[in-house]
Amino acid sequence: MRRILITGGAGFIGSHVVRLFVKKYLDFKIINLDVLTYAGNLENLQDIEGMDNYKFIKGDICDEQLVNRIFKEEEITDVIHLAAESHVDRSIKNPMRFVKTNIFGTVALLNAAVSTWKDNFENHTFYHISTDEVYGSLTDEGYFLETTPYDPKSPYSASKASSDHFVRAYANTYKLPIKLSNCSNNYGPNQFPEKLLPLMINNIKNNKPLPIYGKGENIRDWLYVVDHAKAIDYVFHKGILGETYNIGGFNEWRNIDIAHLVCKIMDKKLDRKKGGSAKLITFVEDRAGHDFRYAIDSSKIMNKLGWKPSLQLEEGLSRTVDWYLENTGWLTNVISGDYKSYYSKQYISLQRN
Ligand code: NAD
Ligand code: DAU
Question: What per-residue confidence (pLDDT) applies to 350?
């Protein structure tokens, strides 16, 4: 029987991974360790919280004593590690928070895994979830491959790159059985509205300005979050130990084009005049060190493991907008004091408008 520790399971991607595993693998025990930062929300998991094969533990991955205790008491066989500080803009304002959670926290988990499993590493997996941002920024051409050299450019991506290096170093030094995946930009239900798409949806709904950094020409490669959760299932079950898999949707969009697409979808759904929401688009100061383009080559996971994305952006975005419009209570609850003060500091120019 597998007893899987999923970290960060109350967050955006983590909650989709927890739901998938709890519902699909009734003979596994899923232990969700999450400290519940502003981005962690147990409402995301209301539908599965009473299931027998699920347990939530509120705690910090940096708390070494707690992590060691959980490994022993819960007899953890595997880890799927998602807990992280994940927002680039916050990393620019407070890098140390990212160093603590993303690096120290990962090392605390690695240490616990080595010390608990060291007598017999067989039948264990430490699966680390990472990002395409560790590869840096692309120009108009090319894709990130699993072999692309690391070149992180923000405090967030530097902290994720460091955690990836630690995971591989533990495999080399202590023979810890590891897997990694590096994914592109996710979108979908339950994403905290500081990230581009839910921020746009929320602001359009409330007739507030839509802040676009710089000229809106930066490019991101979008993947529906449920497809990422399924990819994680593929890697966990079929991936080869020691290997890395890039995950992406071959779905590149310029920020300004995606903003117009959300406006178009929402004009229809809100019965607004065509072009009504697009008037809210407001160009603001660029993000410091803003990576120009991310684009993932996901041929390896597609060819070797048989995974493929199920949705293109237009369809996924329409479903996402429906979810946010239907779950206004969820939005109201997550927009807490912390987010309000973050938002007013981040978008000072908009506050003056
Ligand atoms: P998120 O910010 O929505 O959620 C992070 C979760 O981790 C929250 O529930 C939070 O409470 C928890 N957490 C934070 N610090 C913790 C700590 N010290 N101890 C325990 N729990 C803690 O993040 P997300 O967007 O769901 O990203 C999840 C993972 O996937 C991250 O590792 C991120 O780097 C990676 N990733 C994200 C994307 C994306 O587009 N969002 C893409 C690729 C990879
Ligand atoms: O590529 C994977 C990464 O994608 C993940 O590792 C990160 O955790 C996740 O946050 C995301 O990072 P980005 O910085 O790409 O996502 P964000 O939603 O913050 O921004 C997407 C693009 O939109 C980026 O080019 C910056 C721009 N942007 C963002 C915000 C919040 C704006 O133009 N205006 C905004 O208000």
Answer: 80
Whose atoms come closest to the Cα of 62: which ligand?
A: 1
Question: Would you say the CB of residue 133 lies under 6 angstroms from ligand 2?
Answer: yes
Stretches in the chain below the pLDDT threshold 70: 351-353
Q: How far apart are CA 220 and CA 210, in angstroms?
A: 17
Query: What pLDDT score does 117 carry?
Result: 98
The whole-model pTM stands at 0.98
How far is 248 from 254, CA to CA, in rounded Å?
16
Ligand 1 midpoint to CA 274 (Å): 36
User: Residues 10, 34: contact at Cβ < 8 Å?
Assistant: yes
- Give, in order, the Cα–Cα distances in Å from 297 to each of 128, 183, 239: 19, 10, 17
CA of 304 to the centre of ligand 1 (A): 27
Q: Which runs of E-coded beta strand occur in 82-184?
A: 125-131, 178-183
Report the CATH fold assignment for 3-187+222-250+293-312+339-350. Rossmann fold (3.40.50)
Residue bearing the CA closest to ligand 1, atom 30:
82
User: Tens digit of pLDDT for each residue in 170-200?
Assistant: 999 999 999 999 999 999 999 999 999 999 9
Listed by start position, the domains of the chain span 3-187+222-250+293-312+339-350
Q: Which residues contact 250 (CB under 8 A, 6 or more apart)?
A: 221, 296, 298, 309
Interval 232-242: pLDDT, tens: 999 999 999 99
> Quick one: which atom of ligand 2 is closest to the CA of 195?
18
User: Which pLDDT value is given to residue 314?
Assistant: 95
Q: Is the CB of 249 under 6 A from ligand 1?
A: no
